[in-house]
Amino acid sequence: MNYELFRTFVTDMKRIVYLITILVLLTGCAKKKDFRYATSLTESLHFTNEVLNRMTPVKDQGDSETCWIYAMLAAIETEHLAWGDSVNLSPYYIEKMMEQEPEAPESKRGEAATLLRLIEKYGIVGYDAMRSVDTPAPRYVFMLGAEYTPQEFARSVCAPGEYLQLMRDDDKPYYAETELDTPDNWLHDRYLNIPMDSLFAKTERAVRQHHGVCWCDEGHGMAIVGIAHDDEGKKYFIMKNSWGTDRPYRGLEYVPFDYFKKHTVSVIMTKKAYGLP
Q: How far is it, in rounded angstroms, from Cα 86 to Cα 65?
């Protein structure tokens, strides 16, 4: 037997299984029971973390279609943790505020940029202040002996214009702002369209510099919190998911660079992370 050929075959099969797993994993925003079984196949791969940025505890969106809320809030939280400022934000508050939006779909789907717009309009509260969508939304935020409205608190967490919305669409002009063409973009937000090579390079640089980054493909959104490689040197983004911790990597997903380049719809990071003043 040619053991080197056999070893190459086994390695290639592991990668094929992993890519199939990722495709199944990321086809929908809501957590499904069959995804748990599918991602258990990734245990056949061994990863070495090159960068793993600080993050708040992994949350669980349950059967809701609100991954975009969890992903963008997680990116904001990681950004603050890099500054030494700890914030843990409530996705349920934003979900509750959507009930006041006449254009909001019944499914409560949206885009990460939608979250930024809703924070600017309605504010945000801490996770401990609202741990369920059925809880009445707090009218005030109490911190360090001071009282703030959710809107006042939000301005310290995510200032208007602080984040840059990026997309890749080869059929539209590069380096121009254009509306992201998807039903989930019900607020008609506009994104800066840049080539994939630039989008990938900006994203990798931001993560290595410990910035919070929100990533979305056509069906799911997660926060990018690190970079890793497998035993063959293949590179992956480490993403913080919102499907709880009872998964092979306790709430993290290892998404190949190749998948990112082929399937990314949008990325959001601070203007500073992008390289703007």
A: 26
What is 43-102 written as a DSSP string?
A: GGS-EEEEEE---PPP-B-TT-S-HHHHHHHHHHHHHHHHHT----B-HHHHHHHGGG-T
The pTM assigned to this predicted structure is: 0.88
Q: What is the pLDDT of residues 27-62, one digit of tens each?
A: 567 765 443 333 444 556 889 999 999 999 999 999
- Residue burial 144-157, b: 16+ Cβ < 10 Å; e: rest: eeeebebeebbbeb
263: which 2 tokens? 């399937």
pLDDT in tens, 79-95: 999 999 889 999 999 99
Residue with tokens 């035993």: 231
Burial bucket for residue 249 (CB in 10 Å: 0-12, 13-18, 19+) = middle
Going by pLDDT thresholds of 50, 70 and 90, the confidence category of residue 1 is low
Strand pairing of 163-167 and 190-193?
parallel
Structural contact between residues 74 and 240, judged by C-beta atoms closer than 8 angstroms: yes
Residue 215, helix vs strand vs coil: strand
